[in-house]
Amino acid sequence: MRTIFLFLFVCVLGNAVLGQKVLDNPGDRDREYLAGLPRLVVPENQRTKSLPMMVDNTLEKCFPEIYSQGVWNCNQAASVWTMFTYEINYLRGLDSKVISNCYSPMAVFNLLNYGQAGQGVSYFDSWEVIRANGIPGHSDFSASEQESHPWMNGYERYYRGMKNRISDVFAIEVGSPEGLQILKQWLYNHIEGSQIGGLANFQIGSGDMVMYPIPMNQGLEQEGAYIMTAFGPGVGHAMTFAGYNDEVKFDFNGDGRFTNDEDINDDGVVDMRDWEIGAMLAVNSWGPWWANQGKVWVMYRLLAEPPAKGGSWENSVVVIRAKKKHLPLLTAKTSITYNYRNRLKIQVGIASDLSATEPEKILDFPFLNFQGGSLPMQGITTPGGDNIELGIDISPIINEFPENGEARIFLEVIQKSPSGTGTGQINGFSIVSYISTNTEFRSEESNVQILPNTTTRLSAVVNITPPKPAITTTSLPEGSVGAYYGTTIQVAGGAPPLAWNNLDNTYQEHPLDETISFTGGTKVLPDPWFAYVTRQLPFEISLFGKSTNQITIHANGGIILGNHYVRYPYAINNWLPIYQNNGFFPFFGSLFYPDDNYGVTWETVDNELIVRWNASLDTLRHRPVTFAAKINPSGECQYYYGDMEVNGSDSWISALSGGDWKTCYFLNHNFTAIQNHAAYLLEPATLPPGLTFSPEGRITGTPLEKGEWTIPLIVTDANGLQAKTNLQLIINGGSSVDNEQINSKIAIYPNPITQSCWIETENTRAGEMIITIYDFSGKNILTKQYALPEGRSRIRLDEMNKLRSGVYFYQTTGVASGSGKLTVIR
Predict the structure, then answer these.
(1) What is each CA distance from 567 to 14, 157, 254, 578, 703, in whole angstroms?
(2) Does 470-506+686-732 match 739-824 in CATH topology?
(3) Where in the chain are the domains?
(4) What is the mean pLDDT of residues 298-326?
(5) What does pTM read for this prediction?
(6) How many C-beta atoms lie closer than 10 Å to residue 729's C-beta?
(7) Residue 808's pLDDT band (boundaries 50, 70, 90)?
(8) Upstream peptide bond of 752 is cis (omega within 30 degrees of 0)
(9) What CATH code would you report for 330-463?
(10) Alpha carbons 141 and 76: distance in angstroms, whole number
């Protein structure tokens, strides 16, 4: 048995919505879903209250022409044609008025619309495809010819598209003045001091919208232009914010005045829902003849109102960060002939054993997954339409190559056809390496018939030099309690910038030689109406920095912290809920409970939570799965497995999740096979108290306890390639650190430093403090000694004037103990 090596993109996914004026009001499930989206964080040094009165990014060179949608692709018109084109061309300095520099909304719309022009596709799903395989430009897949059936044909077209990617997707809650300020700053300068700002997508109800022209000859800002005073109640349309104007006005209560400080809706509070001054500049996809040449002013007020009162979906917008440059390192090229593309799923696997006949691990994709409708591979019925040449970026599989760089790579085509077989073959398959020189490794097999209701495989032996980073630090220096500790983990190779794992979000896995009773506790599921139940605990449980005494137990094998299960009702892959929900997932998949002998129970014993599942993978009781989770308040947990009748075609996941789309731990048996009667301990990684691990790979601080710790380290380069190691850190006994030192506070500002800086201390006793400055390599470059009075002190450190631009670290000892990072800018 083996399972899928998940192609898990750090991303945001969302609810599929319809375009045009069709109503789609999914209600609470979207509200719950939004809770799982990552928020755009504004760095302290980028916060500003000084913004211009007006921003209009439609005037920028990188803003494309107004799109005119002819099918229900409004989500892709807003996200791909407008926002992605703008953001990536801004980075590349290209003119978006030149159509060959624009990107095709139809390319991703057609992959996911089941071959139907009237099937809307969520822009969140579009981002998944773009993150995985890129997006072709208009020259390779027309944005103008809005045929909803065709799939792109030709490896070189796919390869060119692989170079166009995103790195992040964020949400901004805009229903408050603070959130509006973040959005405006994004529109002004990308919240990073850029010369121009970004764009933002949002969802609204396009039926029953209310617009008025701003009266002429009254001295009003933007007179004659249309202004939106209410959207429709049924969410189903995507648009783009491209600017704002703080002086656009509309008299909502008809009193002849324009105010932002009066309770004009009589709800007893004054907030954004009362504002009559200020508007966003929104761009639609209904052509340049709509409203103000395809644009309209949207009052700030609507950002705070719910759709039922004319507002926007969940009072939130979505923004992206594009990649200026992305080069795929390893790709798969295949030609397939088949008459019904929705009966096929395509995936790629790897085996380190060159004589293997099937892969050890699988790379899964968010497309080519029984999609596209009952059409030939290209989606056209003309001769040759059943044949397609595809290109897929499989660079993440490089992380699975053995050290010698040799592996067998498999193409797997899974066919499912309960009501008919379909006919066709895999014409050819090869792997293309772009690591040093362009090298193609061809399969020796060709023209292999695709068999019904099974997996057809071709493979090729690949020999590469994996360009992964390598952690060259093999041991850590020992430390002593009460003495400053500082060391930098060294790395060789890898594409910059390098990113280290957050140790606070890192778990370690150990096999357990023990079992648990799979009976006992109180039965809570299945329920005839609900797939999950919420229960109160007599203690709190923590996981990835979040704590609660409420849990939600799911029949499909999960325990979610809190009383909401964030759902994604149109999910293509069942790992989406994993990323959305902060929780424990010992075996998450589609589970059945055929009779009363099956069920889910829970209990708490000695400050530990125990949940047991007795379920089946089918309704006929032929494939039982029995498992349990035991969790203590710290987040340490044990997963136990009894009889597990699992086979290679089942889709399931064992994991821990932070629910923030970025923080997850997947157990090793996801990538090998789940074993009957196995057990695993999952414990959070910890540093010695008093030490911290920086994003630059530096361990610093003053240890407070002696002992020995295992430090799991992971570094990831710009191409997503990783190096991993476990290092032992020993802290010996030494001078004690008293409570007064621990309670003292120290701050250095400004930071970044351009001239001199100030050291401010609080809660210190009278005595000596020593500050030491280290450069990035750990070299001591400055030490100063000060006599501090009791209480609070403020000291000027002029010596920082002498340092070059760069990153430095400080450590204070004595009556004020602290450490941190300093940035010097000249």
Answers:
(1) 9, 35, 42, 10, 43
(2) yes
(3) 33-70+168-322, 330-463, 470-506+686-732, 509-682, 739-824
(4) 94
(5) 0.78
(6) 21
(7) confident
(8) yes
(9) 2.60.60
(10) 14
